[in-house]
Amino acid sequence: MRAVLLALCRPDHPAHALTGLLIWCLWFVLLYAALSLGCAGLPEAQAWASPWNTINLGLGVLILPFMALYALLIWRSWRALQRQSDAHFLIWLGLLVNALSAGAALFVVLPVLYLPPCI
User: What is the rounded CA–CA span in Å between residue 98 and residue 75?
Assistant: First the structure.
């Protein structure tokens, strides 16, 4: 069992082609669930006209661990590309999927900067 888990952690494992997308899906669900629960749970949230409020600040802080995880995955893939000559395709695929997923996560959180949460 330990050998299987260690194999999954290697950047040249095919599971890394899906890791970035799964993390993005988790981020997407958490973002909109937190936004919906925040708007429903805070009665004064409907009156907020500014994007600088508790809900948007919480969502902005929530993305930081996700970006750190993406940075770690991209960095590990980049290091593996420098060391290995075989399995280049899987490592590049994982690196690009993780980079695109990080970009998508940032794109989804951009409205937090300029829109009030409960429109």
Answer: 10
Residue 58 has a CB neighbour count (10 Å cut-off) of: 14
Enumerate residues 6+ apart whose C-beta is below 8 A from 13: 7, 90
The answer to whether residues 115 and 51 touch, using CB atoms and an 8 Å cutoff, is: yes
**What would the mean pLDDT of 79-97 be, rounded to a whole number?**
84
Distances (CA, A) of 5 to 13, 42, 66, 79, 94: 11, 42, 21, 20, 17
108 token code pair:
């989804």
pLDDT over 90 at 49, yes or no:
no
Q: Which of 97, 119, 3, 113 is CA-nearest to residue 56? A: 113
pTM for the model stands at 0.84
Q: Is 17 exposed, middle or buried (0-12, 13-18, 19+ CB in 10 A)?
A: middle
